[in-house]
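Task: sequence design from structure.
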């Protein structure tokens, strides 16, 4: 797919999420879970035109999940991977991590135009969402943690948005595997920087408006 192509089509057309992610064949059990999660995500919102990327089980050993971005790995190397070793007995959490990585895909291809993460580049379309996130208590926690660890990870915009997107998806699909996965990941400590329900309310509303403006909500 040529990302520099028909911008008008990009901005107005609606596509299905399950056309953007191609799970398997690394692990058939994970593939079934991923497909169910994609159906649920697709019920929550649609998307603009995205290149189809694979979802595999090849995340680096210590990572729960991983997005290999286009701006670093090129079109053929762009993919989402889940951490196979980490998920022995934890498959229930897969949809939560999938949703997190899918945000990075959306962030790079929709708002970053394939050249980086739109949120990291302060894309004007994401300004309201980021402003809502920065007013939360959880953002203060993330900033302090980065200061303590001398790195820019917890409060990096694309990471904040990815954590927020996976929480928003769980909230908007309360009876599905996305919500079950979210609560399981928080309980296990694999989701260590999520928001309390109260703290998250303005962020969820900002996501609603962001996707409504794109015409992606049902
Ligand atoms: Zn991430």
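Answer:
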């Amino acid at each position: 797919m040529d990302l520099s192509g028909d911008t008008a089509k990009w901005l107005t057309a609606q596509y299905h999420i399950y056309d953007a992610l191609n799970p398997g064949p690394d692990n058939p059990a994970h593939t079934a879970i991923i497909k169910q999660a994609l159906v649920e995500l697709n019920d929550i919102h649609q998307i603009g035109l995205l290149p189809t990327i694979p979802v595999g089980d090849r995340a680096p050993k210590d990572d729960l999940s991983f997005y290999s971005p286009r701006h670093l790995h090129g079109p053929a190397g762009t993919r989402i991977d889940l951490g196979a070793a980490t998920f022995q007995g934890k498959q229930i959490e897969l949809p939560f991590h999938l949703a997190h990585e899918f945000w990075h895909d959306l962030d790079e291809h929709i708002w970053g135009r394939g050249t980086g993460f739109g949120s990291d580049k302060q894309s004007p379309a994401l300004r309201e969402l980021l402003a809502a996130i920065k007013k939360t208590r959880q953002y203060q926690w993330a900033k302090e943690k980065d200061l303590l660890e001398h790195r820019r990870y917890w409060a990096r915009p694309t990471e904040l948005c990815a954590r927020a997107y996976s929480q928003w998806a769980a909230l908007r699909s309360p009876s599905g595997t996305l919500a079950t996965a979210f609560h399981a990941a928080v309980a296990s400590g694999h989701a260590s920087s999520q928001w309390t329900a109260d703290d998250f309310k303005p962020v969820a509303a900002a996501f609603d408006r962001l996707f409504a403006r794109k015409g992606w909500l049902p």
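Residues 100, 104, 159, 162 surround zinc ion (CB under 6 Å).
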